[in-house]
Amino acid sequence: MNASTEEQPSSSLDTLKWGVAILLLAGAVVGNYVYGDQSVLIRAVSVVAAVVVAGIVAGQTEKGRNAINFAKEARTETRKVVWPTRQEAVQTTGIVLVATLIMSLVMWGLDSILFELVGFVTGLKV
Length: 126
Fold this sequence. Notes:
The chain is an all-alpha fold. It has helices at 12-34, 40-59, 62-80, 86-122. Helices cover 79% and strands 0% of the residues. The longest helix is centred in the C-terminal third of the chain and has 37 residues, at 86-122.
């Protein structure tokens, strides 16, 4: 088999970690519902803590590490972007607004001409 087409099965430990993460998230939802009469602050802190722990557990899997590496690389690439100055942004916005206005007037004119043409051909006027 070719190395590029061969899939590596996920380890049973990764499957167990994903199961724990899902159980933690499900527990947060169920716990928030069951303890609905408790303080909102306590429930919110508990849910946030459960989500953080579930994220940490999921981050220990192969797919989790890949996702974390992807996020780091995306952040690095975002820093490389050359953002426009305020003047460039304002000028570009103005150009887009003027072009939109011109095109809307052209479309309105064509619609009016076609409306009159169809009315003339069919003999129906509104």
